[in-house]
Automatic annotation (TrEMBL):
Name of the featured protein: Phosphoserine phosphatase RsbP
Transmembrane domains' residue ranges: 55-75, 106-123, 129-148
Species of provenance: Streptomyces jeddahensis
InterPro entries in the record: Bact_Sigma-Reg (IPR052016), PPM-type-like_dom_sf (IPR036457), PPM-type_phosphatase-like_dom (IPR001932)
Residue ranges of the region described as Disordered: 1-48
Keyword ATP-binding carried by entry: no
EC number: 3.1.3.3
UniProt KW keywords: Hydrolase, Membrane, Transmembrane, Transmembrane helix
Compositional bias (Basic and acidic residues): 1-32
An example molecular function term from Gene Ontology annotations: phosphatase activity
Domain PPM-type phosphatase: 184-406
Name of the gene: rsbP_1
Length: 407
């Protein structure tokens, strides 16, 4: 606490304004996304019982404005007259502005003002210039807190709207494929990042072509609508090239040129400096084989029917798409057997870079080795559940999983 005459209301409220995330849209609950209030919730919105400590923190933060007002009142009553609890009274509405909807902020500001008036007008209290200054300061901060609450809520709604638009656009670009494509069993899964994270540029597509079933899984650098726009370019280029190009290497080169054209057309700093990692695969018709071209992407996994796992590492890795200015490496497809009952798993780094509380990465190769699954859908469901357990709820990056099985 500070002595009278040296108070600065703004300084005491500075910390309080940082915890606010996106406001609750129905106005009935404190803010959740991005703040302490959301930390005990898992990715699917259910409470994460594996981390009970966060529930305690969330409850404490929710009642923090009330505690500040109570502490200020007690301090003012018990402390010598030369000291004041005004910093606590001014901090309460500022904290409420970041945590509560408008009604809660107004109530917190009013309660702070009533408390400081009650203390200053209590029997035996001296009404001097310092007391009047305290009352005026708390009143002004309460009004500022209401204004800040409106700004934070409006910004939160705009961010939520932008994310929803980006998610809808991305899901329209990468719809769930049919369960059977070209005689192969197919399953795909898109796991969004935890609440408050920006939408990423993960992509996938599966297509039956005259050359076999071709698929792509990739990850565009960047977040938001810029990444979604790049996804649209790559998906469009893949669907066209997969039909027209005789080799998988030529498909990869078409994608590279398409991304370069888009960067030149937009002439934006993000796109010009951006890139995309992709892995392309082809299962030729009538052959028990799979061919892979990897452009800087996490390596696909091949799970045989007996649980044997193979990591499809290419002999000569190539640069990601959009980085041809750094050098030229010829694309060379890697081919291996793909017998009946085997499953090919492609994924983005949202899987392989998912971390637990100790910073340990999730390693899909070691986790899946020796295991047998009923089909692609069962494999992806198991992976998604394991990643949620590994991370304690949600991931910091979007995750795409694509699996195909030869019956």
């Amino acid at each position: 606490m500070r002595q009278r005459g040296g108070r600065d209301a703004g300084e005491d409220g500075g910390e309080a304004d940082r915890d606010g995330g996106e406001p609750d849209r129905d106005g009935g609950e404190p803010y959740r996304d991005g703040g302490w209030a959301d930390q005990d919730f898992a990715e699917d919105g259910t409470e994460d019982t594996e981390r009970p400590g966060f529930a305690i923190v969330r409850t404490f933060v929710r009642f923090l404005p009330v505690l500040l007002i109570a502490a200020g009142t007690v301090y003012d009553v018990l402390a010598p007259s030369a000291f004041t609890g005004a910093p606590l009274f001014t901090a309460a509405p500022l904290v409420a502005a970041a945590l509560y909807p408008l009604r809660g902020t107004v109530l917190a500001g009013g309660a702070s003002l009533v408390a400081v008036l009650a203390v200053r007008l209590s029997p035996g209290a001296t009404v001097d210039v310092g007391a009047v200054t305290e009352v005026v300061t708390v009143a002004v901060v309460a009004v500022i807190a209401v204004a800040l609450n409106r700004v934070v809520r409006r910004s939160g709604r705009q961010l939520a709207s932008a994310r929803e638009i980006a998610e809808a656009a991305q899901r329209a670009l990468v719809p769930e494929p049919a369960e059977r494509v070209g005689g192969l069993d197919v399953a795909a899964r898109y796991e969004a990042a935890q609440a408050g994270a920006f939408i990423g540029g993960d992509l996938y597509a599966v297509q039956d072509t005259p050359h076999g079933v071709r698929l792509v899984v990739g990850d565009v650098r960047g977040k938001g609508m810029g990444a979604v726009a790049a996804v649209a370019v790559l998906i469009g280029a893949f669907r066209e090239a997969a039909e027209q190009e005789a080799s998988l290497e030529a498909v990869a080169q078409r994608l590279d040129r398409a991304l370069a054209r888009e960067a030149t057309r937009r002439r934006g700093i993000e796109l010009l400096e951006g890139f995309a990692t992709v892995v392309l695969a082809e299962v030729p018709h009538g052959r028990d084989a799979v061919r892979v071209v990897n452009r800087g992407h996490p390596e696909p996994l091949l799970l045989d029917a007996d649980g044997t796992l193979r990591v499809l590492t290419v002999a000569e890795p190539a640069l990601p798409l959009g980085m041809s200015d750094l050098g030229t490496w010829p694309d060379r497809a890697y081919e291996t057997g793909f017998p009946s009952g085997s499953m090919l798993l492609c994924y983005t780094d949202g899987l392989s870079e998912a971390r637990d509380e100790h910073g340990e990465f999730y390693d899909p190769a070691s986790r899946l080795a020796g295991r047998v699954f009923d089909g692609p859908g069962a494999l992806l469901a198991a992976l998604a559940a394991e990643v949620r357990r590994h991370t304690g709820g949600g991931t910091a990056d979007d995750m795409v999983l694509l699996a195909v099985r030869r019956p």
